[in-house]
Amino acid sequence: MYQLKERFGNTALITGASAGIGKAFSYALAKEGMNLILVARRAEALQQIAEDLQQQFGVAVQVLPQDLQEKNAAKTIQSNIKWPVDVLINNAGFGSYGRFQDLDVSIEENMVDLNCKLTVSLTHALLPSMLERKKGGIIFLSSMVGHMPAPYMATYSATKAFDRFFALSLAGELKNTNIAVLSLHPGDTVSEFREQAHFDKALPGRPRTVENVVHTALSNLGKRPSAIDGLGNRIFGFITRIWPEKRVVNFTSKIWKP
Ligand SMILES: NC(=O)c1ccc[n+]([C@@H]2O[C@H](COP(=O)([O-])OP(=O)(O)OC[C@H]3O[C@@H](n4cnc5c(N)ncnc54)[C@H](OP(=O)(O)O)[C@@H]3O)[C@@H](O)[C@H]2O)c1
C-alpha cells in the first residue's frame, strides 16, 4: 500500500511497540511485508505481538525487551539487533500532567531521558548503516504540543518540541541523501498514554485512532519533513502558529488547566 520496502528497505525497528501507536506501526509495517525489531519493556506483550505478526503476515520478527531509560540502552540495542535497520520509528515516550511544581521531578527527568536523550542516542547508533546503504527512513514521534506550549504538561511539551526540532534539523542535514526524516505530530489519540500521564481532561474534538496516526506517518514519510495528524489538529496548529505567543499561551492554559 505504501511501497515502503521498495523505497526504504526490508527491516524496521519500532520503539514502544508493546502498545498504542507503536503497536499499530508494527501491524502496518508487517502488512507491508517488512521484517520487524520490536522494542519495549513488556516482553510478554511483545512476544504475543510477534507471534501474531509472524502468523498473519509471514514476516520475521525479533523481540528486544529493553528499558529505554537505562544508560547505554541504545548501545545494547545496536549490539543485539539481528538485521540492519532500514526504518527507525522513534516512538517510545510518555507524558505527565499537572502543575510543574507538584510533579515528581524524577519522573520529569526520566521523561527527558526517554523522549529526548534516547532518541538522540538510538538515531546516532543506527543512522551510519543507513548512510552506508544509501537508503532509509526515520520517524520521530513529536506531538501537537511540540508545536505549541502546553501549560500543565510543561516538560512533556518541551520534550516534544525538542523531538520536532531535532527531526527537522536532521531532515535538512540529510536532504541530499536517500534517507527520509519525518517529524510526526499527533493530537489526542486513543492509547495508554492518557492513563499513564494521569491526564483525564476532555479536549475539544474527537480523539484520533492509532491507525489514523500511523496512516498519516506512512503516507507522508519521504514526501515532507513533518506531518500533523487530522484536519482538526492541522487547523489548530495553523491558528496557534499565526497568533502572537502571549495569545497562544493564554489559550492553551485554558485548554489544559486541570
Ligand atoms: N496518545 C496520544 O495522545 C499522543 C499524542 C501525541 C504524541 N504521542 C506520542 O506517541 C508516542 C507513543 O505514545 P502512545 O500514545 O502510543 O502511548 P502508549 O500507549 O502509552 O505507549 C507507549 C509505548 O512506549 C513504551 N515505553 C514507555 N516507557 C518505556 C521505557 N522506559 N522503555 C521502553 N519502552 C517504553 C511502552 O512500552 P512498555 O510499557 O512495554 O515499556 C509502550 O509500548 C509517544 O512518544 C507519545 O509522546 C501520543
Layout of secondary structure:
Elements: H1 4-8, E1 11-15, H2 20-31, E2 35-40, H3 43-57, E3 61-65, H4 73-80, E4 87-90, H5 105-133, E5 136-141, H6 154-173, E6 179-185, H7 193-197, H8 210-220, E7 226-228, H9 231-242, H10 245-256
Parallel strand pairs: 1-2, 1-4, 2-3, 4-5, 5-6, 6-7
Helix pairs in contact: 2-3, 2-8, 4-5, 5-6
Bound molecules: NADP nicotinamide-adenine-dinucleotide phosphate.
Helix content: 40-55%
Q: Could you give the order of strands across the largest sheet?
A: 3-2-1-4-5-6-7
What compounds are bound to the protein? NADP nicotinamide-adenine-dinucleotide phosphate
Tell me the fraction of residues in β-strands, as a range: 5-15%
Assembly of the depicted chains: single chain
Low-confidence stretches: none
What profile does the largest beta sheet have? 7 strands, parallel
CATH superfamily: NAD(P)-binding Rossmann-like Domain
CATH architecture: 3-Layer(aba) Sandwich
State the CATH topology: Rossmann fold
- What is the gyration radius calculated from CA atoms? 18 Å
Care to count the β-strands?
7
Can you count the helices?
10
What is the CATH class designation? Alpha Beta
Question: What overall form do the CA principal axes indicate?
Answer: globular
Number of domains: 1
Overall mean pLDDT:
97
